[in-house]
Amino acid sequence: MSSAPALVVDRLTTEFRIDGRWHAAIREVSFAVGRHETLALVGESGCGKSITALSIMGLVPRANGRIASGRVLLDGRDLVQLDERELEATRGGAIAMIFQEPMTSLNPVLPIGFQVAETLRYHTSLSKAQARAQALALLEHVKIPSAAQRFDDYPHHFSGGMRQRVMIAMALACKPQIVLADEPTTALDVTIQAQVLALLAELKAETGMALIFITHNLGVVASIADRVAVMYAGDIVETASVEALFAHPTHPYTEALLSSIPRVDRDAGALKPIAGQVPPITAMPAGCRYADRCPLRVERCATMPPLVALSGNREHEVRCWVRTGDGGAAS
Amino acid sequence: MSATTAAVRRSAWSRLGTIVRRNKMASFGAAIVVLVALSAIFAPWLSPHDPLEQDVLLRLASPSAQFPLGNDSFGRDILSRILWGGRVSLYVSTVAVFIAIVVGGALGILAGYVGGRFDRFVMAAMDVLLSFPTLVMGLLVVAMLGPTVGNLILAITLTAVAPFARIARAPTLTVKERDFVEAGRALGFSNLRLMAVHVLPNVLDDILVMAALWLATAIRTEASLSFIGLGVRPPTATWGGMIREGFENILDSPWLAILPSLAILLVMLGLNMLGDGLRDTSDPRLRHE
Amino acid sequence: MTTPLLEVRKLAKTFPVRHGFMGGRTGTVHALCDISFSVAAGEAFGLVGESGCGKSTTGRAILRLIEPDAGTVLFKAQDVYRADPRRLRALRREMQIVFQDPYSSLNPRRTIGQTLSEPMRVHGLGSPREIRSRVRALLAEVGMPVDAAEKYPHEFSGGQRQRIGIARALALEPELIVADEPVSALDVSIQAQILVLLRGLQRSRNLSFVFISHDLGVVRHFCRTVAVMYLGRIVERGPVPAIFDAPLHPYTRALRSASPVPDPKAKVIMMKLEGEVASAMAPPAGCHFHPRCPQAMPICSEVYPGWTQVTPDHGVACHLYPSPASEDAPRAQ
């Protein structure tokens, strides 16, 4: 916790061109991830969490997207400024990504062992045989049963959970400092998800890497995150430690979200759904983007509130005039 | 995401119009096709002379003021014959392709929807039909049944049914698995209703693309059959027949054969451009999957 | 004791797996075996399990969208599988289905009005004017604006399409709705909206539900009774609070403890279960769960456990709870 953060995202803005005009998908997103820390990026579809990950990795589709401003600092280097060649050297090396759909992120016509070894050979100076041996060790490490026999099997021979383990093996092959996982367990069954989350936790403890975990599932967040950043319509609206977020959800959206989730550990109370919908990217209001749906809306909400620390807890930040105006955290 | 999609799901025709307008190649092709179609429809009014009127004195005459494209080996006006020839070619092709779409499309949808042995049987039958080259099919039909316009249409239809059956079957297999079809079954809809009202409109896109391309093939087939003498009998003007007659004088009066060839070329070009343009602009960009 | 609205008895279904040109059979998927449960009028019955357990197949078999190999389904004491086409058509009006994917459940070429009025027209339920006004009433009932009738599905969001799908299911005034993962494809905040809508409809129309889901939280919220399925069989069945607070079957326990809860003090217990679900083509002999079960005993790999009613409304199929009669009547799969 005391050393420099593994990754710093500083006022990152990414835009897309729709019908000829540029619209911001994420605006001035800033956060830092400490070494050994798991930061969860939470939000519903369209909030910009995936775009944030793609922007960090430099994978924003060039055809109609661009990083408009901001910095992504990894070890003091700004990734936004790197050219494609330098980025390629960094991706898979110092920073790696795990995607949601392992069938489309694994090449279906290449054996899995080959794909893991390929990552190693690209980023290190290992020989073919050494890379193969290392890849096998990695596959065993992620608990693929009979890894030696299945080294040359193809992705379609494996189940979803197994494929995700292969992805994790590839991501961790070069011992990255930070891993981005974009909804890695959303497509998996609940018991398999539990296994994969356990695996990630184990590996994280071993390697000391930082993890940015993107999800829409607040239950998963509660299980694995150290800190949480809640996103809505392209902005971060609340950041806090995981305990603080669930004990004192302060932003009206976070609060509303928590009250609208049916829970398996409690008897059915009334669910309180959030009325309305997220505004479309082409018609974002000028002020607070949640204002239309917010029961606490006041006049001042027509201007965008800044992300401000709560007086009771400097680690807990909220983007809301009402909840921070008089400086108090909801108790 | 939905902010970026454009086409509204109106009728198939208006969607066609939108697609055509948006794609330059398709528009150009459509323009040609429309031009040719109009000239064929209005041939009786547009042709300066009677296409069957012979004049021995004007045999193989070069283009003149009265006969802008010259005269053929019987002294008939080439321009008028080309216009009237278009009528035959377009009539035969359009009718044949239309029947092929209806019969082939129905077979394809039925086979895809019912599945199982019926599907395998129908597709095997289609494979048999596909194994016949068009000319061979034409030969067989005409030889067995006689050289009439009806049999010509039959010959071309037989070769076109199989491709349309296949083209209709493929999307049927996907569409019938969609939830809204199952919803229809749960609501007590008959299979006929599900095929006609729910599957068919979703399959129409693919069929329309094929239709344009196949019209071109049909025109070429008709011309080929007429060229080898199995098409519509002379003295009726057909493009293929004109080329055949022009062949005899190909060395000294090449334009007798070239001009009808150019006509065929033009129509096929237009249809191919239209079909290609349709194929390019339909599917992923306009589908809202 | 009133007759239950829906009674399912010993449903069984296998699917052949074919390969090759002439379609020779190379294997069999044992999708369902010995599925039995009942649903009372106005009750929400949950069917939970992970992928491949057969819950969706069960839902469709109830509606006879799939023909089972064996078993009976009684709807209001009428035999659904023995019904002739006319009777079946009448039965279809009383049981309907809501699908998971809002993007494939509506015909993209038809307007909402056409989609909603079609069932009423097909069954001859009134003049065109009456049907039109009923369409408007349905739209209002599911919280959609009335002018939606002229629009096409692509003009609506996922949550709105799901509402339209629900409206379509209500068009023929059914008494039972099979909801196959109705909120799984929706965002968290939209899920809540649809769940509230379904609950309201249940109350106002006294609807029964067979609610299929892999999300235990959603099932706990919505259902009164639940059956847990694994590889084509029901392993435990009973009232929702009992099943989720004090599960009996080891699989139910694993499922429960693996389900994430939005509370950092209740972290998912992650190492509970090793291994993957076996293939439905070759379910393990004896109890299908025994290869992964932390409490497996020798008998578990030989004999499929009989059903034991531990309390009058809570039953389980597990050798840890032997029923008095089951030892001598093994039902190997």
Short description:
The complex is a heterotrimer of chains A (331), B (289) and C (333). Chain A is α/β, with parallel strands linked by helices and 331 residues long.
Written description of the protein model:
The complex is a heterotrimer of chains A (331), B (289) and C (333). By secondary structure, chain A is α/β, with parallel strands linked by helices. In chain A, 32% of the residues lie in helices and 24% in strands. Chain A has helices at residues 49-57, 84-90, 102-105, 112-123, 128-141, 147-150, 160-172, 190-207, 218-224, 242-247, 252-259, 321-325, and strands at residues 7-18, 21-33, 38-42, 65-74, 77-78, 95-98, 178-182, 210-215, 227-232, 235-241, 308-310, 313-318. An 8-stranded mixed beta sheet of chain A has the order 6-7-8-3-9-10-12-11, with helices on both faces. Chain A has a 4-stranded antiparallel beta sheet with strand order 2-1-4-5. Chain A is globular, with a radius of gyration of 21 Å. In chain B, helix 4 runs parallel beside helix 7, helix 8 (179-186) packs across helix 9 and helix 10 runs antiparallel to helix 11 (255-281). Chain B is mainly α and 289 residues long. Chain C has 333 residues and is an alpha/beta fold. Helix content of chain C is 28%, strand content 24%. Chain C is built from 9 helices and 12 strands. Chain C has helices at 55-62, 85-92, 112-122, 128-141, 158-170, 188-205, 216-222, 240-245, 250-258, and strands at 6-19, 24-39, 44-48, 70-75, 78-79, 95-98, 176-180, 208-213, 225-230, 233-239, 307-311, 314-317. Chain C has an 8-stranded mixed beta sheet with strand order 6-7-8-3-9-10-12-11, with helices on both faces. In chain C, strands 2-1-4-5 form a 4-stranded antiparallel beta sheet, with helices on one face. In chain C, helix 3 packs across helix 4. Residues 326-333 of chain C have low confidence and may be disordered. At the A-C interface, helix 8, helix 9, helix 10 and helix 11 of A face helix 6, helix 7 and helix 9 of C.
